[in-house]
Amino acid sequence: MPYQPIPLTNMPPDGHATSPTNPAAQSHAGAGAGAGVTINADTSAETSDPLATKTAVDSLYIHVPFCFHKCHYCDFYSIVDTQQRQARFADALICELTQLADQYLLQPTTIFAGGGTPTLLEPIHWQRFLRVAQTLGILNRIHEFTVEANPETVTDELAHILATGGVNRISIGAQSFNPTLLKTLERWHEPANVQRSMTRLRNAGINNINLDLIFGIPGQTLDNLADDIDRALALQPTHLSCYSLTFEPKTALTARRDRGEIQPIDTGIDRDMYAYLLDRLDDAGYDHYEISAWSKRPPPHPPTHSPTLYPHATPAHVTSPTLPLAATCVLDTNNTRPPIDYRCQHNLAYWRNQNWLGIGPGAASHINNQRWKNLPHLARYIDTSPTPARIDHEHLTHAEQQSELLMMGLRLRDGIAIEPAQFPTHTQQEIQRYITVKMLEYHHNRLRFTREGLFVADCILADLIPS
Ligand code: SF4
């Protein structure tokens, strides 16, 4: 499910939003080009490096608006295109990317292609886009490059093109393995194609695979959810995102609810489902690191007290006398090698309020506490290429930045390191009130939800920030 933070001023009741923990601590850009940092040229000395005046971008979001059918719960900007505009869209996307690469230090560590259905974009257009991205140096520092996929649209050819073009993570919209529940959502795919897609992707070399699931679907029982989870776990994804169904305004699903055609499930059952997920996925070896996200728990460090050699890692490179001459390895005398981390690094960049750019119609951007969004209109996007119209431009005040820090940082199970005194009196009082009723707690000096608080997280978040 595509995820892009929504500006605080447009915060929906379910609390999707963004913000930071500690921007200064989140620098991935190296050489001083960290998150939220504009690298200013030293005016006292001549510089020959044009990049020295550019803002470093940590993450890039690509919005591909095409879908072959509109799911009834969906309020993302996506269209069923009957005018065969994929080539012109790809041209415009490439032009926008090229222009932004000139304007910013655009060497992100994460890229996320969402939509829409990015895997509906024909392989030839993906190939063109990835070649340009590579030529522009945009893939030079990539740590994680995710593409969202609908199970009906993953072919061997596309999997190969994505893998060879630098994509190393796929997020598959499974939603449910129950055909009746998929029908309720008007989600068009065969459950069996989730596994087929994963096999194709793994054959192409992409092993880091997320499955999106939805729970709380009208008619769904706890047994149905347990069956969905069993089937998802059997496929051994590295990450699971489980979202409680939300009736978004102006969607077909909400209209059907309002006409009395479907009944939302009881809130008690919804709560039981979330409790089930917390317990079941923990037992299955997945770490719950964000309200709706679980990552496969890494294997423990090797139990050794002797130095360990890891190929192609940091921090200290040495040439091992025990390996072939050309082999460059790391002598990790303290076993300090970071564990494998299957958390979605791109979403972490949102939750930590780093700098990201969005390209494509409807894509949002956040650079140095300024936000904007491309107009969600494919025809206009193509016509105005390479400078799409922007809407919702806002410059966050210090108070708004602080609020977003709280809203987004609390989504993480690690919580955030904050001083309540930095917030308005209302927020301080609300934090204390929720600590008293054991919905919030300090854990290792970080404010976070308790397990009980997780069940009403959206309400608490809404209470913390005065509207
Ligand atoms: S495939 Fe995704 S983006 Fe497209 S309509 Fe369905 S939920 Fe929306």
Write a brief structural summary.
31% of the residues lie in helices and 19% in strands. It is an alpha/beta fold.
How would you sum up this structure, described in words?
By secondary structure, the protein is α/β, with parallel strands linked by helices. It folds into 2 domains: 8-296, tm_1862 like domain (pyruvate-formate lyase- activating enzyme, Alpha-Beta Horseshoe), CATH 3.80.30; 300-338, no CATH class. The chain has 14 helices and 17 strands. The chain has helices at residues 86-103, 123-135, 156-164, 179-185, 192-204, 222-234, 252-258, 267-283, 345-351, 378-383, 398-409, 425-436, 451-454, 457-464, and strands at residues 59-64, 110-115, 144-149, 169-175, 208-215, 239-244, 286-290, 293-296, 308-311, 317-319, 328-332, 356-359, 364-367, 370-374, 390-395, 440-443, 446-449. It has a 9-stranded mixed β-sheet with strand order 7-8-6-5-4-3-2-1-12, sandwiched between helices. Strands 9-11-10 form a 3-stranded antiparallel β-sheet, with no helix packed on it. Strands 13-14-15 form a 3-stranded antiparallel β-sheet, with no helix packed on it. The longest helix is centred in the N-terminal third of the chain and has 18 residues, at 86-103. The chain binds iron/sulfur cluster. Iron/sulfur cluster (SF4) is lined by residues 67, 70-71, 74, 76, 78, 115-117, 150, 173.
